[in-house]
Amino acid sequence: MRLGSRPATLGLLLLCAAAAGAGEAEELHYPRGEHRADYDREALLGGEEEVDEYVKLTPEEQHKRLKSIIEKIDLDSDGFLTESELSSWIQMSFKHYAMQEAKQQFIEYDKNSDASVSWDEYNIQMYDRVIDFDENTALDDAEEESFRLLHLKDKKRFEKANQDSGPGLNLEEFIAFEHPEEVDYMAEFVIQEALEEHDKNGDGFVSLEEFLGDYRRDPTNEDPEWILVEKDRFLNDYDKDADGRLDPQELLSWVVPNNQGIAQEEALHLIDEMDLNSDRKLSEAEILENQDLFLTSEATDYGRQLHDEYFYHDEL
Questions:
Q1: Cα separation, 137 vs 135, whole angstroms
Q2: Which interval of the chain is the signal sequence (predicted)?
Q3: On the CB side of 17, how many CA atoms lie within 13 Å of its CA?
């Protein structure tokens, strides 16, 4: 059983959808490791409404909005975009759209429009019915038991997010439930939940063996590729102090990964592709010279920022 890549703490359907969607998107975006610019163009245009809106922008208006975005990314106003500035902007963009999506979800989940999402409403939206498992009664079927445990974890996270102990979650609490990585008061709960699942010897840390879960090495064979990948992540991404185990703060970066790595990777990709004079930063001229590439990147959320006043309006 593969457990190293992502702990099962944020809900069965969310995990399945995220894993499947991310895997398919990654394969389409980088087939055989090669970047597909036309995939970015497809992501830019999106559905019919997005296509219509994109077509309506004149080249002049597109140019004006893009320049406005460039100025906002350039935090020190020196006329150049550095890796750090690009990465910070992309992370901000990720968070903005995550919050916007959570706000839209809140409306959909709030069936009776009382500005609160109850546990029953959450179940109805997710599963089309209210599900109630006995915490103390295990199920015989392995898949059903796995779902029961994940559903109970979701319920605990829901209850933790509910700070005022009301009948449901208000918008801020719903965001804490959906995105615990963005809310400080959820961190301790998420860490404790992960320790309960993975800290088998109860020492308050997660060792490499515990990180890899049920995997048992066969001394007669080489480790499979996924094990090598997970070991590399453990050693180079998560175990910051190189002591061979994950402490609570290191554990948090695994349990609830943020978008920093993705943003840094995209920032480097843009500089590698668009930096014409090899100074490791981008001028406005270099960006406008490669406008299509910039518009099909995470830096503009595949062009969506050109249609969102939050990003190109002067008061951002």
A1: 6
A2: 1-25
A3: 6
**149-179, pLDDT tens digit by residue?**
999 999 999 999 999 988 899 999 999 999 8
* Closest to 300 in 3D by CA, of 90, 50, 27: 90
Residue 118 near residue 177 (C-beta atoms within 8 A): no
- Other Cβ atoms less than 10 A from the Cβ of 202: the count is 8
Residue 224, CB half-sphere, CA atoms under 13 Å: how many?
Answer: 8
Per-residue pLDDT of 88-131, as tens digits, reads 988 888 888 888 889 999 999 999 999 999 999 999 999 999 99
Here the tokens at position 87 are 């990465």
3-state secondary structure the chain: CECCCCCCCCCHHHHHHHHHHHHHHHHHHCHHHCCCHHHHHHHHHCCHHHHHHHHHCCHHHHHHHHHHHHHHHCCCCCCEECHHHHHHHHHHHHHHHHHHHHHHHHHHHCCCCCCCEEHHHHHHHHHCCCCCCCCCCCCCCHHHHHHHHHHHHHHHHHHHHCCCCCCEECHHHHHHHHCHHHCHHHHHHHHHHHHHHHCCCCCCCEEHHHHHECCCCCCCCCCCHHHHHHHHHHHHHHCCCCCCEECHHHHHHHHCCCCHHHHHHHHHHHHHHHCCCCCCCEEHHHHHHCHHHHHCCHHHCCCHHHHCHHHHCCCC
Lookup result for tokens 């590698």: 272
Q: How far are the Cα atoms of 244, 250, 262, 275, 298 from residue 238, in angstroms, in the given order? A: 10, 6, 15, 31, 24
Other C-beta atoms closer than 10 Å to the C-beta of 54 total: 17
Q: For residues 306 and 62, is the Cβ–Cβ distance under 8 A?
A: yes
